[in-house]
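Attaching the record inline, Q. Sequence:
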Amino acid sequence: MSLMKQLPFEWLVGLRYTRAGRRSGRNSFISFISAISVAGIALGVAALIIVLSVMNGFQKEVTDRMLSVLAHIEVFDGRGSMPDWQQKAQEAARNPAVKAAAPFTETQGMLIVDDVLKPAIVRGVLPSEEAKVSDVARQVKLGSLAALEPGAFNIVLGAALARSLHVSVGDKLTMALAQGQVTPAGVIPRMRAFRVVGIFEAGHYEFDSAFAFVHLADGEKLERLDAPAGLRLKVADMHKAPQIAAELRKSMSGELYFRDWSKLNQTWFAAVQTEKKMMFIILALIIAVAAFNLVSSLVMTVTDKQADIAILRTLGASPRSIMKIFMVQGGLVGLIGTATGVGLGVLVALNIDVIVPFIEHLLGVQFLAKDVYVISTVPSDLRWSDVGAIGGMALVLAFLATLYPSWSAARVKPAEALRYE
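Structure, as predicted:
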């Protein structure tokens, strides 16, 4: 109570108007409009937080699945191959951000089984080293990545690629390479028989349907190299990969080329960011509509309180003080709506793994079928920076909504307002 007495009278009157709107039976319609404004702001804020958290969750899930196969940074030698890859790996390891390095080769080929032909990206790896930079070894569902042996011409296929070729562990296939052989009959593609020794599933269709792994020595023979094509690096923080690549470019010797994971999927990430921005704008319109409701409720409050305004003016209140009263009232409505929306949005976003299965069970539906989307649960990644931006935007819109009604209240002339009282 003592704290209330210390507040300026504009705050006291504004708080009283806010509470009176709910308690008084005379102004039930104004109170209803105010409640709608609070509910609109709360629902808009909550919806925006939940949707952005789910979109962040999907982006994180897809990124993690992509990086389970891709390297954080790839290093290539300008000579076409990297015979001193062990030395280059040691140079890279001097940077504390680099956690592991593994050699690789990569080429494109056509996999053939009977009359079925499928293109594939064929990566040559050392199984013992590959486990340090990717999760492929743990993603092998049938067979083993360790079964890749030099000179044996064994191959590990993605699950979708194996299904499209109708092969499993132990079956054989033929690989045709674009680099052909010149014969009297013309240029014909080089062919090599392989035996399937493993099938992996990364959970990302692009990789499961197009990637295959062979031993590094076999990969070098396919590309006609005498050494690996380059190095794949794993770093401590994948988000700093571009910065780390720039540091390695300065510290490592030789004519080297660097490519980080964000450049490999630049189009996809740009599309996701554009989608998030558009979704933010669309859902922000819900908050804007609620702010318009706040304008209408304050305008009606000003009209209803003209006699009170006139009495305050005759008692010495300045137009600026009258303006502050209604800005306090509108600001409190916006603050209550924003706080409610932030609380609801954060609560749902943090418990979406419980709420969505409950709704699915209640309605007897499944939002994400695993055989279609691979991801069977709705992911959520709540980011407090998004929460702060959404809450700040809602408060700014609510504040802007109070300006015209407050200015209108400050222009009320006491004599005209009291004429019919």
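The CA atoms of residues 61 and 194 lie 33 Å apart. Confidence is low (pLDDT under 50) at residues 21-26.

More tomorrow.
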